[in-house]
Amino acid sequence: TIITLVFLGEWIEHKSVSTTQKALNQLAGKQKVMANMIAFDDEHKEQIFPVENTQLRVGDLILIKTGEQVPTDCKILWGDMHVSEALLTGESKAIRKQKKDSLIGGSLVVDGTVKAQVTAVGKDTVLSNILNLVKQAQGEKPPIQQLADKISAIFVPVVIAIAIFTFLINYFIVDVTATNSLMRSIAVLVISCPCAMGLATPAAIAVGLGRATKSGILFRNAKSLELFKNIKTVVFDKTGTLTKGQLKISAFEYKDISEEEFKRLIFSLEKFSNHPIAKAITETWKINNPVQWKKIEEIKGLGITAEDAEGNVYQLGSYKLAAAYTPIATHTAYLLKNNFLAGWFNMDDEVREEAKDVINYLHSKNIKTVLLSGDSVERCKKVAAELGIDQVEAEKSPEEKLVIIERLNNEAPVAMIGDGINDAPALAKATIGISLAEASQLAMQTAQVVLMNKGIQHLPLALGLGKHTFITIKENLFWAFIYNIVAIPVAAAGFLHPGIAALAMGFSDVVLAINSIRLNYKKVI
Predict the structure, then answer these.
(1) How far apart, in whole angstroms, are the C-alpha atoms of residue 261 and residue 68?
(2) 291-316: pLDDT as tens digits
């Protein structure tokens, strides 16, 4: 009877917890689909035939049509379409994709037809990486779970000792028969089975991570989910984080060189950088005959230095580079040739629509906001004033960003949100580093949390989930301990039959599972 009831409790518990894995199971189900592979026969005629996406290799050509699922990560070569990345980002609105844009495997094509080239397969795809990270995070033990494990390690021998004393006291002192004394001792063992303590944290973590994944929030480890409860300061990068990163050239000026040569030099330098400004330049000024540099180096937070075949040295970067050559500090970037100012350009960026609401939410929770950027003081102050950000730290190099984050960390736990290579050290130093999906690979690898929805609108949800997951864990642990504190004396006194004790023990697990599942529907913002 005891074994049957214990197994029944375990089954109900696993059934309850498995419902929290729907988002993860949906992602896993999207990993194996059919694809339309394009090949060419001996007469160079295009042939299309179906294959499983597991058979695709990097470089293969595929045809993707309306209503189909993108079989694997690829880049569009021809055509355009609207795709829904809701399964990965939590954003239901269809996104327009055109030539040279990347498609994420698992996305659903709303309308349009494209021919694309496979860029990643198997474990290298975005979807596989998400699944692996979530599974890894669910398997990790946050600090509070480690505390529960330590308590359980003491609890088990203590309960065995209580069970032995229960038998001895009942048989020798209370004068209960040997059979009944043994039954009471068994009831103590059964009722105090520490399953509930073991389930308290993993169940809440599983639900919290499941809901986060469904909303496009990717936690790299369970610890970061718990750490969110302590965050008192949120630090934002500017370009690509608070702003859209869709930069447009608003003005430029050149000296002692032609406009064509100025654009050619800027393009040739910027094509070696991953900064949002560089990407905007290379997309706007497309040059077919770039300069072939003899030597080129990107100095994070400052700019790019290069030398051509004739020995001319060019520098492109922030005002720090040009401070000795011009008093005007308001331009986006400056071009120097052999230590002389050769020109400058300005770029305008649009503030993200959700940024104001996110800042207001943080202030409503008494969380301090800081803008930390390598951009000019004027532009940073303009954005900060528009959004109501508390503190501005502008024109900072990666090293200076690191020092500022360290200082803020000493005052209170800090979350840092950034998307560039120069943000990576600061992201690693912060209590929690948060990156955006379109960030540089270095920033994404350094951050503990990645917002997959191409924006910061789910930052409040990430903070809320972290806080309420921890609340749920505390509720679960409280129930587990109170249950044992009350139940053990009742069992020792002979008021619980071992069979009833087994049922009650199984029921305690179910209560914890139900309380954890509640996190899936709870208002956390």
Answers:
(1) 46
(2) 889 998 887 767 899 999 999 999 99
Question: Contact, 180 vs 170, CB < 8 A?
Answer: yes
Residues constituting the chain: 525
Q: State the catalytic residue, choosing from 73, 237, 349, 423.
A: 237
State the DSSP string of 203-234.
HHHHHHHHHHHHTTEEES-HHHHHHGGG--EE
Q: What is the pLDDT of residues 151-192, one digit of tens each?
A: 777 878 888 899 999 999 999 998 889 999 999 998 888 888
Task: Find, among 512, 517, 501, 503, the residue nearest to 9 by Cα.
Answer: 503
- 125-130: Cβ within 8 A, 24+ apart: 125/72, 125/73, 126/73, 126/88, 127/27, 127/30, 127/31, 127/73, 127/88, 128/31, 130/27, 130/88, 130/213, 130/218, 130/452
- Active-site residue 175, yes or no? no
Q: Are 350 and 243 in contact (CB under 8 A)?
A: yes
Q: What's the pTM value of the predicted model, to 2 decimals?
A: 0.67
Report d(CA 76, CA 82) in Å as an integer: 12
